[in-house]
Write the structure tokens for this entry.
Amino acid sequence: MGTSGRWLNVEGLAVTWHDHQLVPARTAVLLACLKREKSSVTLKNAWMTAFLSSFLLCAAVTAPGHAQAAEAPESVFMGYWLSQGHDGVFKIGMCGDTVCGQLVGLSYQGDDVPKDHKGQSECGIQMLTGFRQSSDDKNRWNGKILDPDSGHVYQAQIWSPQKDVMKLRGYIGLPLFGETQTWTRYEGTLGPVCKMP
């Protein structure tokens, strides 16, 4: 039988004879088309056809992943973070179009909630404000950090060098004159009045 043999149904798969072999019907159709086109395609055109076919196949395979909305760059910071000294937990989220952070967990004894310089509870205080993506380095975000003990506000940068790790650098004037802390993603619980277990 030639390339246009009878169609058979073997275990639910349409098959036919092609060059003395039993092949799936779809493959036979493709092979027949290629055989007809073969005589009119030059070597250069065949290479280009193969390249474009491979490219289109790769594009079709990867397209569903790219069709989804890209993750927002600030999403790496969203969630709960444990401070370097393990004495505070911050909830970082969006405040309008900027990234901000609120103190939601504190390490303290008894019922004596730590107070800021004005004598007010530090529980729930907004300490990180106005963080926007840097125009110089898209991985870093510039904003401000409040020192609740003194009431001073300092310039700050945050960035994430790896998953579940965030760096925070507070400084005066230039980032060169500052101190960097390493915060880690917090997965624990919090008690009433921001009390950490």
